[in-house]
């Protein structure tokens, strides 16, 4: 074969495996070889069993030989964050308190991955109980840039070629931040798009599973397999599933009109990051204009933290305090101290802001904004750059379009109207394939 199979986009690799041009066990063997090389560098995996991956690949290949239907993700290993239950692998939730826990059923998102033909690569490291101390995962090829909080293991695994696809979750910035820092694509769909059943749920208003990949088309491929109504998750709705992959791969009928939204946290970016994004905006002259958000948006970071901490304090009330890190114990203590008035005010802020932003999307296909604090900033600062969009449940995708003079990634975030996930990914693909020379 003239090209290494791991260099193929995931959707192309899946197509070749469905057609029999690549055997699933051969693809899994190549993945295992890459894991052997990259895991020592990244520390991305919480649990990995090569024999278990090989057994999944053999079952998939056997089904192919028998003529069984092949799903859109046929043969593709997915790096699954360790807050999603897996019935055949331990789920530790990023804490020693849950080490060795083996659930009796898959999380709904994991079950959907399997039904689409995917293999579970293994479990990837997450922040402690999803919201506390970051794991000791390292950014592949960029050791001077921390991979962030939330689901950094899945992002690092995808960036290192250990898996073509990853599954994570965002309460504050757990998908967009790590993807931006690791130089890959990350997508947090509209709130309620992917079921949270069987996932460590911290905040009903904020939590949303998201995905990682190295190509926009692959983001659409895996997200399309995961969306849908789940009667056991009240955030989901019984609506028709959008053909994400088909729409994302299509050309916009007109060049998309974008709004540059620096957000109230623009000055927190390092000088290099600001300059790079400003150059991108200049290159899009004629198709983008600046949009200033209401002054009250400056409160978004604080209010997001208040909601996340309060909800997490309730969700994790049964965890023994002596088993928590000092950082997480402090966050949960703050959560217990927030008053009912302040909590209600934060929820009202989010409810009032969402309709105002919806009106702006009548004029623009998407907002363009920073995705994280950039390579100069700390991962803990990334929540500010996701705060407004997470509070409002809007779909967000980060694109690895820029880098600084040292080759470190600077993520660019596109934000769409709630429910317009397919059009957002189409716009993202248009931007990712555009030449700015």
How is this fold's topology laid out?
Elements (H helix, E strand, L loop, with lengths): L9 H10 L4 H19 L2 E3 L2 H16 L11 E5 L26 H8 L3 E6 L27 H8 L5 E6 L5 H7 L2 E4 L19 E6 L2 H11 L17 H5 L9 E3 L10 H13 L4 E3 L9 H16 L10 H12 L2 H21 L5 E5 L12 H10 L3 E8 L5 E7 L5 H12 L5
Parallel strand pairs: 2-3, 2-4, 7-8, 7-9
Antiparallel strand pairs: 1-3, 4-6, 5-6, 5-10, 9-11, 10-11
Helix pairs in contact: 2-3, 5-6, 7-14, 10-11, 10-12, 10-13
Second CATH tier, the architecture of the largest domain? Alpha-Beta Complex
CATH superfamily of the largest domain: Amidase signature (AS) domain
The helix tally amounts to: 14
Beta-strand share of residues: 5-15%
> In order across it, which strands form the biggest sheet?
1-3-2-4-6-5-10-11-9-7-8
Secondary-structure element string: HHEHEHEHEHEEHHEHEHHHEHEEH
User: Which radius of gyration do the C-alpha atoms yield?
Assistant: 20 Å
State the share of residues found in helices, binned by percent.
Answer: 25-40%
How would you sum up the major sheet? 11 strands, mixed
Q: At the third CATH level, what is the topology name of the largest domain?
A: Amidase signature (AS) enzymes
End-to-end Cα distance: 33 Å
DSSP strand tally: 11
The level 1 CATH classification of the largest domain is Alpha Beta
Summarize model confidence as the mean pLDDT: 94
- Poorly predicted residue ranges: none
Number of domains: 2
- Apparent shape: globular
Q: What structural class is derived from the secondary structure elements?
A: alpha/beta
